[in-house]
Amino acid sequence: MKVGIFTLGCKVNAYESEYVLSLFKEKGYEIGNFTEVCDIYIINTCSVTNTSDAKSRKMIHQAIRRNPDACVVAMGCFIEANKDIHIDGVDILIGNKDKSKIVSLVEEYFENKKEIRNLYKDLGTEFENMEIHSFEGRTRAFVKIQDGCENYCTYCIIPYVRGKCRSKDPDLVVEEITTLVNNGYQEIVLTGIHTGNYGADLTISFASLLERIVKIPKIHRLRISSIEATELNDRVLKLLENNSVIANHLHIPLQSGSKNIMKAMNRKYQKEEYEEIIKKIRSIRPDISISTDVIVGFPGETPEDFEESYEFCKKIGFSKIHVFPYSLRSGTAAAKFKNQIDSKIKKERVQKLTELSNQLEEKYMKQFIDEEVEVLVERSSNGESIGHTSNFLLVKIPREYHQEDLVTVKVEKIEYPYCIAK
After folding, report:
1. Which domains does the chain have, with CATH numbers?
2. How many angstroms separate the CA atoms of 378 and 190, rounded?
3. Measured on CA atoms in the order 329, 331, 333, 335, is the torsion positive or negative?
4. Which of 67, 158, 318, 380 could form a disulfide with 385 if both were Cys (CB 3.0 to 4.6 A apart)?
5. pLDDT tens for each residue of 113-138
6. Could you report the per-residue pLDDT of 34-83, keeping only the tens digit for each?
7. What is the spatial distance between Cα 48 and Cα 41, in angstroms, rounded to a whole number?
8. 282, HSE (Cβ side, Cα atoms, 13 Å)
9. Taking the CB of residue 35, how many other CB atoms lie within 10 A of it?
10. What is the bridge-based pairing of β-strands 166-167 and 140-147?
11. CA dihedral 411, 416, 418, 422 (to 10 degrees)
């Protein structure tokens, strides 16, 4: 039988989908494309915004229409957030638990032809172990080290659908990364729902895990998918200073540079604290790329609040800002806040901050003209190769290389969003 999967949302979902496919492969199932007729469809859903919910529903209905006789599995955050949901044509519903049991659940459905609903009041405190040996079609491999979040930012549904913080056993993390490195992956990306909080439930720390990972033989590049400013403590910074294997790029979410809005969002730091941490990082690695996330149009964000946030982003000098208009998410505290911002104003603020991001990104890229950079090749065609550097520069090379080749080239010029190599 043929299996097709569609993944919405974050890197954690991407990892979990790859793991699910590996389980089906091991059992001898054929892996197909979600857009073709399959016997089993799996939709790994997202619920970070109301729009994500709508996209999840859309993909579920597409699968049902494509083959009404297929076994349709809906799993993940959208289902977790809507435990009472019933969708005609969906045969298996699971949230963010029991993904490792997916094959046995599908086989149970085919045997009994009865709807299966594996949904729980509480996701518990145990990390659901998953392990992958390859990441189909990708040059970098994600490794999920952590699940859950307990920050309860007022705009975010994730703590409610992912549960309490749970960490993977450090021995299993090291074992999985070692296998992936030995299987030829040049870059490993550590990912989780609250990655930097790794180990809080195990009485160990994220830094202690990093100390073990950087010692894995033959590991070339280790990337941290995202980390909060407050988790970049002195021990982590020392590792950053002394280990070139850690990628020269950090993604450190800001969400707002306005004191008032930070407080309303229930962020766990002050502007001054965030800025001080950035200064420490740059004293260690002056040319590091630092990207961030910023939400504009949060309820109650005045023009003065937006300008304060804009100027703070400009002052920090991020290499890239991922800009998001605030999206009302039912079930969160902010959904009940007064002074919701008009969509037209949100759009204007998104445009202004995006323009700043483009300017800052191009300025950062220009630092590397006439510099040699090491590129991990991701794709090649028509006499060109494209890939990323350790500091996440997107480089176009006028020669074809194999996927996953590491090549050293000199940057000749900038044609945004590319660095053009000689």
Report:
1. 2-118 (3.40.50.12160), 124-247 (3.30.750.210), 254-366 (3.30.750.200), 372-421 (2.40.50)
2. 19
3. positive
4. 380
5. 999 999 999 999 899 999 999 888 78
6. 999 999 999 999 999 888 999 999 999 999 999 999 999 999 999 999 99
7. 22
8. 13
9. 10
10. antiparallel
11. -30
What would the pLDDT profile of 240-256 be if each residue is shown by its tens digit? 999 999 999 999 999 99
Strands 384-388 and 394-397, bridge-based pairing? antiparallel
Q: Among all chains, which residue has been given the structure tokens 């970098």? A: 140
* Cross-sheet strand order for the sheet of 140-147: 166-167, 140-147, 187-192, 221-224
Distances (CA, A) of 225 to 171, 248, 416: 20, 12, 23
- Rounded to the nearest 10°, the torsion over CA 262, 267, 268, 272 is -30
Q: What was the pLDDT predicted at 135? A: 87
Residue 251: φ, ψ to 5°: -105, 115
Question: Chain-wide mean pLDDT for the chain?
Answer: 97
> What is the band of 336 on the pLDDT scale with cuts at 50, 70, 90?
very high
